[in-house]
Amino acid sequence: MNAQGLICGATDVPLSTLGEAQAKSAEWLQRKQWSLVACSGLRRAQHTAQLALPNQSAQPFNGLNERDWGALELRPLDEQTPYEVTPPEGESWPAFCRRVLEAMNRLLAGHELPLIVAHSGVYRVIRALQTGTPHGPRIANAQPVLIEPIADGWTMKEIKENWIEQR
């Protein structure tokens, strides 16, 4: 759906060939033993986790699912409402944030360093916590981002393959 420029929130579509290649490009993540590999309940996130980390099983958490864009699902991206506006028949921004944060808090309470395979909307919820807004550039598909708590919020940075050796 990304390649076609369509809104694909809660619609459970498979990865494309390009999506599979992007997931495999993150295979270096398997060199780390994560306390948990968690993923969205949507099959594109589950398949991404399987391809990137073939030797570690991923646990699906529906709280990490992408936002339900309601009547806007599979419509062109230029029809997408601002994040703070509830799409027709869709999930409100506050409800989406609550769902994602409940899942994240549950994961972080029980696991020291979980790897989470989810969606850009989940990243936008975390960005909103960090910066006060979900708006900003999209992260690339299968781009690992390290999110760490600090005294007054969170830091977020894209990580590359040599990150594991530097840790």
UniProtKB/TrEMBL annotation:
Top-rank lineage group of the source organism: Bacteria
GO MF, one annotated term: phosphoglycerate mutase activity
Q: What are the record keywords, sorted?
A: Gluconeogenesis, Glycolysis, Isomerase
Query: Pfam families attached here?
Result: His_Phos_1 (PF00300)
Key word Zinc-finger present in the record?
no
EC number(s) stated in the UniProt entry for this protein: 5.4.2.11
* GO biological process terms on file: gluconeogenesis; glycolytic process
- Similarity section: Belongs to the phosphoglycerate mutase family. BPG-dependent PGAM subfamily.
Q: What is this protein called?
A: phosphoglycerate mutase (2,3-diphosphoglycerate-dependent)
Tell me what organism the protein belongs to.
Marinobacterium lacunae
What taxonomic lineage is listed for the species of origin? Bacteria, Pseudomonadati, Pseudomonadota, Gammaproteobacteria, Oceanospirillales
